[in-house]
Design goal:
single chain, about 160 residues, mainly alpha, globular
Length: about 160
């Protein structure tokens, strides 16, 4: 029990974890499926990959495509393993940041191209936040005092 409390696994967080866990798994699975297909296409050296890389200003050789594929698949696999999910999310965030920078550099449309990596990153982190109670404890989405104070603070003032 002491270890559960140390990681923020209180009875309340476990009780509400069923829906959050499965929603987080679904979001994580959606992003992971997309990234694994993307990485797999790069590893396979599909012609569309090298043609797109050339349009984006990247070297269009198979070695570069396969390197990006290895990075994508490797970071995604890290993201899918609960013990290494945080590291995988950080690596994928960096990878997606590079994609955003690439689209900004060539002046692609904002909402459909430039921000697509941001959309994936938000879903990626949202999925991890929902499936990992330690991350929810580290980054709570509740008011931590603010102008109104917490309920305990307000009750003490009355």
């Amino acid at each position: 029990m002491a270890q559960a409390i140390r990681y923020g696994l209180t009875p309340a967080s476990r009780a509400s974890g069923g829906f959050a866990l499965w929603t987080g798994r679904a979001l994580s699975g959606l992003v992971a499926a997309f990234l694994l297909v993307d990485g797999g296409m790069k590893l396979a050296g599909a012609r569309v990959v090298t043609a797109t890389m050339a349009r984006l200003g990247w070297p269009s050789d198979l070695a570069t495509a396969r390197l990006l594929g290895v990075l994508t698949v490797g970071a995604t696999l890290l993201y899918l393993v609960p013990r290494t999910a945080f590291l995988g999310a950080v690596l994928l965030t960096a990878y997606l940041g590079g994609a955003v920078a690439t689209h900004v550099r060539i002046a692609n449309p904002l909402f459909s191209h430039v921000l697509f990596g941001v959309y994936l990153g938000v879903i990626l982190w949202g999925g991890l936040w929902l499936r990992d109670p330690r991350l929810r404890a580290l980054l709570p989405l509740t008011a931590m005092g603010g102008a109104r104070g917490t309920r305990d603070q307000r009750d003490g003032e009355e």
